[in-house]
Specification:
Layout lengths: L5 E7 L2 E6 L4 E4 L14 H23 L3 E13 L7 E13 L3 H15 L1 H6 L4 E10 L1
Parallel strand pairs: 5-6
Antiparallel strand pairs: 1-2, 2-3, 4-5
Helix pairs in contact: 1-2
Amino acid sequence: MAEITARVKLIDGLQFLGESGSGHTVVMDAAESVGGRNMGIRPMELLLVGMGGCTSIDVLTILRKGRHRVTDCEVLLKGVRASEDPKVLVEIDVHYILTGNELPAAAVERAIKLSEEKYCSASIMLGRTARLRNSYEIRQL
């Protein structure tokens, strides 16, 4: 099994510095309504960002292995949280915007499906508590 590590250190108030085992950092903070100062990304937002990054890497890798020329990829995510504690994500909408030269819809659909069902650890994990809905658009060059 592969191990990953992270460290989260208090900066001030409810603001934290998150550091990955690979040495990259992100500032997190709580909303002002719960005592934070809105000086960083919320931890739950960071989960969506991580899922978006994970699935983007998968989709691009699959399409490029299929020799499809993708020049841009944007993934828009929207999560709905439960109203009661623990306020887990219960719905996540994922919209892919892929730009390329003669990108076939079938290849894009296949890449998204493989990411969601086989490769994207974040999507698979979050999909255990949230209903995932995917959509996409292709912008041809």
